[in-house]
Amino acid sequence: MRVRNIRQFILPPLIIAGGALVFWYLSSSAPPPEPLRAETRAPVVSVRAAEKVTAAPTLRVFGRVESPTRSVLTAGLEADVVEVAALEGDAVRRGQALVALDAADADLQLRQRRAELADIDAQLDSEEVRQRADIDALKTEEALLALRARAVDRAAQLARSRSGSEAALDQAREQHERQRLAVLQRRQSIDDAPARRRQLQARRARAAAAAQQAARDLARTRVTAPFNGRVTQVFVAAGERVSAGGRLLELYDEAQLELRAQVPSGHLPALRRALAAGRTVTAVVAPAAEAVDADAAAAGPALLLHRLSAQVGSGRGGVDAFFRAGDGAGDGDGDGAGAGGLPVPGATMEIHLRLPPLDNVVLLSPDSLYGNARIYLVRDQKLQAKTVRRLGRIESGAGDGAGDGNNAGDGDGRGEMLLIVAGDDFQTGDLILDSRLPQAINGLQVRIAP
Fold it and tell me: Is there a domain that residue 117 lies in?
């Protein structure tokens, strides 16, 4: 019994001690473990070989369709509206009657002015007759004056010889003076004839001008279209009375539609040089610019840069450029489209403007650019940071960028957007990182994808 108790208390500690000795022996005799090493693998990247080319940057801008010949037709006189022959949205031709005003008052005024003109014409004819009569009468008056002079001489001789009285002599002298006064008056009438004629001619000119004004007022009762265009608004209806200068309707010339778009100031020098040199600067509307190949883009609506604004508006970062339809763009289809297929005035459009070509540039994909102006070159399997100067971008669908092997656009018919940077600091064949690499830093080890 006592031996059993001893076993229960002594045997378990002996077993534990023996196990501890065995563990210690095994641990001390095992070889030391090798330290863990973190294995890093260089990321695989794609690259693009630098090639200096000539490329025309594409600028995406938004513009508003306008017409510089947007006109508001007004009434030339106060009258009642008899008829309105055009409605909003109607296409009209030059000379087409649009609004008819009551012509009764204008017709009466014209008749009155013409009657005044006829009266003055009759006075001119009468003046011609009067002048001829005065010339003939002057001869008779001068002959009578000579007779009165001889009568005075005879009366004087008789008075000296006591055969006549002094009263007879005085009477002869009075008749002579009266006749001399008549001759003077007749000569004055003849001398005044040119002045009277000029006065009548001046009155006739005023009457003729008044008659012409009345005829114009009568013609203004029929309001016609000054050009081929489309009516945008009608302000009157039949039966209304309008005053002189009152608005009748508004229309614009479809052949003069143009697109006004703001171009950033940084691109203005190149555009001004191109216009001064007579070079054509083209643009295409957004649907055509998104075509999948150059032929489809070329077939889209084409616009030509017509002119640049002469001033910069307050609070604006650029100058307005005005684009018009290019050759072969069409003259409108009569269903609301204007020149070159441009929509109605007020419509907003997105266009892709092809700037003048730039020489000695390098094209990059957007994935190559980190930040605003940093790229990475791959040299000796390591990244090398480089700052570039951005000059714009080019989109293969924005026009025919294809060239002769040195021009941008070859093989870019997939609608790819490429960045244009200055090529001064590049060597042909430099490998440019063409992958998005979040951990990209200067000196990072990379592997180029096969």
Answer: yes
Indicate the helix (H) or strand (E) that contains 194: helix 193-219
Any domain includes 321: yes
Can you give the CATH number for the domain in which 334 is found?
Answer: 2.40.30
Read off the tokens for 361. Answer: 């540039």
- Does residue 15 form part of some domain? no
Which stretch of DSSP H or E encloses residue 287?
A: helix 286-289
Q: Is this structure's pTM higher than 0.70? A: no
Please check whether residue 8 lies inside any domain of the structure. no
- Domain end (from 354, 388, 415): 354
Write out pLDDT tens, residues 384-437.
898 998 888 887 544 444 333 444 444 333 457 888 888 887 888 889 998 888
Q: Which helix (H) or strand (E) holds 215?
A: helix 193-219
User: What average pLDDT does the structure give for the chain?
Assistant: 82
Token output for 1? 């019994």
Q: Which of 206, 232, 251 is the last residue of a domain?
A: 251
pLDDT tens per residue, range 333-384? 444 455 556 788 888 888 888 888 888 899 998 888 898 889 999 988 889 8
Angle between helices 193-219 and 166-191 (to 10 degrees): 30
Radius of gyration, alpha carbons of the chain:
52
